[in-house]
Amino acid sequence: MVNSINILELLISPRQSKAIVGWRDGKAVSHADFVTRAGLWQALLAGTAGNNIALFFHDSIEFAAALFGAWHAGKTVYLPSDMLPATCASLRPMVSHFIGDFPAGCAPLAMPVADAPSPAPEGLAALDPDFIGLVVFTSGSTGAPQAIQKKLSQLAAEVRTLEQLFGKEAGEAAVVATVSHQHIYGLLFKVLRPLARGCPIEALSLSYPEQIAAAIAARECILVASPAHLKRLPDSPIWEACAPHLRAVFSSGGPLPAEAAYATARRLGRMPIEVYGSSETGGIAWRQRNPDAGEEWLLMPGAEARIAEDGETLEVRSPHLPDTAWFRCSDRAHMVDERRFTLHGRADRIVKIEEKRISLDLIEARLLQSALVTEARVIVATGSRERIAAFAVLSAAGRAALADGGKLALNLRLREWLAETIERVALPRSWRYLDTLPVNAQGKTTHAELTALLNDADTPAAERPTMPHKRLVERDALRAVFALEAPSDLLYFDGHFPQTPILPGVAQVEWAMQLARECFTLPPQFCGMHALKFQRVIRPAMPFSLEMLHDPAKGSVVFRYFSTEGSHASGRLMFGAAHV
């Protein structure tokens, strides 16, 4: 099976026309339909000027069709991780066209229509391995994202390596993912390897635990996630039906804390397989924790590693790199033997403040030793004067201290704690206390996201909107319909994936309850929810609608959020008389 995994011949390899590529809205998409879509994209792009295009789709199946269509049209694809205005502006000098879900200001090319001419698979040749088919960008977790070119041969080599390592365990199980294909990890695990092996994929990434559990319970599958997502899985009975269907759990984007790994294994019945790598190197090593393995990482087939001359920084070379030169990583490491190593933090997080060398890792480690903090990140904030800014998720004791003494007192308390081991010049001057650290679609906390929190800090939370823009469309005694839009500065978007912000489910339920009380005469006591489902995410400035149906006899309100994309969420709210 390993030798047959070849993404360079995906569109021309013979497959049954009814073979399933994946599911969209619960409906199967056949391999024949996928090849047709790829052919339409190829025909469209072959007739456009320029060699470089920017590609962004939320839908993984349409993304894959456009990706292969672009490659067969001889186009190099630039793969941004988001569609923020600054990202689009930075792409304009690099590309001639945008395709996909980009905003209207980018003038994305119109999607090809089904009756447009498209080349038959037999008219396509295998892709050139030396063609630079992709430009990806670093995550930006330590600064501005950097562009990295990828030959198709590098991507093909990675797919073969993943199949050699994990093909037996993953098999042809369907792929359920919480991460985006717009990053190299999601691209390989969610799109390229599944398509090459013939594994069905879900068109949309899943964000809510209920969505993830329902998708896993539906069929035999693997879960492709990140540490940020796995750390936030709740203890819940919803996972009980998952274990029989789940063949493997993958995690990448950063080391998964041991307690989170064992908690995931307890909830889902599978110990996560962690993959170590980067946008520059691709996959380098992997591990699956057990009581005897500790923190060691095992090199992937064909990869080599050593410690650089500085005595601490990891260097690697592998077939996933563009040449045979040694590549210096940004991590400190210790070689256990020729094939195994342990990681010891970032090597590139040493900064200079007033000519003093400061370790940002050391500041974070010291904060985590405090009983007041459970998660912490520090960055260098620029302005009239460089300063250290700290972002912390507080423990129960920390939240109590903040409530009792206020922010200034807590700032001073943590500064004094740091001062026992950190030079005064390196003590944070800006502090932000968060419910969760912000993460992007790849589950990473980036420098840009944290900087944005500093820039928004002058707007008090009390002045930020917590309700959508609304317009009543229809209303009678038992039914009401609102046209809604979630403002971009909505308070509920804070910390909820700022690179690709989504509206939390709890906010959607709260809005339905509040608007139901505005429209209907309801009993005073809220008694619970039933049949709660979240199908699609709601993004900032996105128009959508809310329909509510009141059943006075049952004391219930059935609600449904929907838009031109389809259904987003639904459920039934129950009300009753107040208890005396």
Distance between the termini: 68 Å
Fraction of residues in helix: 25-40%
Question: Which structural class is indicated by helix and strand composition?
Answer: alpha/beta
Q: What percentage of amino acids are in beta strands?
A: 25-35%
Helix count? 12
CATH class of the largest domain: Alpha Beta
Give the strand line-up of the largest sheet. 8-10-11-12-13-14-18-17-16-15
At CATH level 2, the architecture of the largest domain is 3-Layer(aba) Sandwich
Largest sheet: 10 strands, mixed
Rg from Cα: 25 Å
Number of strands: 29
Poorly predicted runs of 5 or more residues:
456-462
Shape: globular
Mean pLDDT: 86
Tell me the domain tally. 4
CATH topology of the largest domain: Rossmann fold
Descriptive overview:
With 580 residues, this protein is α/β, with parallel strands linked by helices. The chain folds into 4 domains: 1-198, Rossmann fold, CATH 3.40.50.980; 206-348, Rossmann fold, CATH 3.40.50.12780; 350-458, 2-Layer Sandwich (GMP Synthetase, Chain A, domain 3), CATH 3.30.300; 463-576, Hotdog Thioesterase (Thiol Ester Dehydrase, Chain A), CATH 3.10.129. Helix content is 26%, strand content 30%. A hairpin with a 2-residue loop joins strand 28 (556-563) and strand 29 (566-576). The N and C termini lie far apart (68 Å). The relative contact order is 0.07.
